Predict the 3D structure of the following.
Amino acid sequence: MHYGNFAFMKEVDVLLSDIYLKIRKLIDTLDHLNAENAKLKESQKELKNLISQQENKIHVLEEKLYQLTISQTLENTDIDLARKKIGGLVREIDKCISLLNK
């Protein structure tokens, strides 16, 4: 009977060692996953920051584009207006020349 008890204790000891190894493995896996999770969170934070910077750049560029579009529209309007005035002056000069020729 004493021998059977020893065999049972040895079996329990083997099972406990196996459980200990599995727990150790789970703890190592947990540590690895926690480290990986921390790296991913940091990467996510950096990417969100980059997205925010890019959105700000887009906003600035859209504002510059809007201002440039308005500026070009005003320039084109000024050019068209100047061309019309010059055209009117040329016609007036032509009239004067034709009156002088008569």
About this structure: Helices lie at 2-101.
